[in-house]
Amino acid sequence: MSGLADISREAPVLIAGPTASGKSALAMELAARDARVIVNADALQVYACWRLLTARPSVAEEVALPHALYGHVGRDEAYSVGHWLREVRAYLEQPVVIVGGTGLYFLALTEGLAEVPEIPAQVRAEGDALRMGDLAAMVAGLDAETAARIDLANPARVQRAWEVLRTTGRGLAAWQADTPAPLVPRDRAEALVLRPDVGWLNARIDRRFDLMLAAGALEEARAELPHWQENRPSARAIGAPELIAHLRGEMALDAATVAAKLASRQYAKRQRTWFRNRMRDWTPRPLP
Questions:
Q1: Mind giving me the DSSP string for 213-263?
Q2: Which one has a higher pLDDT value, 153 or 106?
Q3: Which of 196, 156, 200 is nearest to 16 (CA)?
Q4: Closest CA to 43 of 69, 17, 13, 76
């Protein structure tokens, strides 16, 4: 990675990139240089129950530099891009570097987010059951305009659209048409997207998971086992389902490790595709 001289000292800095690409290290360098607050933009790093598996900053790193919106959400709490956007607003009056791998957070920040009403718990439960039992029926239940705009291969996106329509009687696409102005317009920020070499990144992902295990990731999963529910958003932590399966006696640790590394590489591939398609106006930063 090149040095920091080409990165603004005044504008908000946004750093997106796939998992294990070195985003946090770059953010910490910028925070130390410019006295910035490091603000999380990763949908999995918000959960208190996961530190190692989501690669949240360490306790020592959080002490050394100011961090915000990390590990502050309980495993059972509802948390969405809307929650994140409302929380991030409080940090924008000071120098920030906003870093993470959740493209939807960055899109909401720089392009605005439709103010869709909260989804009632009963509708959320119906959505959970339908997504797990009959995703095709959920897709068929969407309004045509929304179905044409969202990724129908992404169950979470389908469920979100279905729940909005079920709750409000109005399609998600119609809500999005009324999107308010963004908090940080793209042209007022230094927006960087890391573009690592795929082979380099895959090797780094595998190595990092081994380090996670050595640091206690299996024990972290063991602590979560009594509370485990696979349909919770917090259960989407990459590697968590595989380690839970091992702890339940459903697969050997070696097999769980191989599966978790594969899941992480596949996740990184989806992230790269999303960034390539949706962040074309962001400044690419090649790696290594």
A1: HHHTHHHHHHHHGGG--TTSGGGGSTTHHHHHHHHTTSS-HHHHHHHHHHH
A2: 106
A3: 196
A4: 69
In the structure encoding, which two tokens stand for residue 34, read together? 């410019």
Residue 203 predicted with pLDDT over 60:
yes
| Calpha distance 244→256 (Å, rounded) | 9
pTM comes to 0.86
pLDDT tens for 57-72 read 999 999 999 999 999 9
Neighbouring residues of 164: CB distance < 8 A, sequence distance ≥ 6: 116, 119, 170, 171, 172, 175
Q: Quick: pLDDT tens for 230-279.
A: 989 999 999 999 999 999 999 999 999 999 999 999 999 999 999 999 99
Is 147 within 8 Å of 139 (Cβ atoms)?
yes
Q: How far is CA 108 from CA 51, 113, 182, 217, 249, in A?
A: 25, 5, 7, 31, 41
Which pair of tokens denotes residue 42?
């990763």
CA distance 124 to 9: 43
| Calpha distance 194→216 (Å, rounded) | 28
Strands of the chain (E only): list them.
13-16, 37-40, 67-68, 96-100, 190-196, 283-287
Query: Per the structure block, which two tokens stand in for 248?
Result: 């339940």
Q: How far, in Å, CA of 53 to CA of 50, rounded? A: 6
Tokens of 235: 């259960």
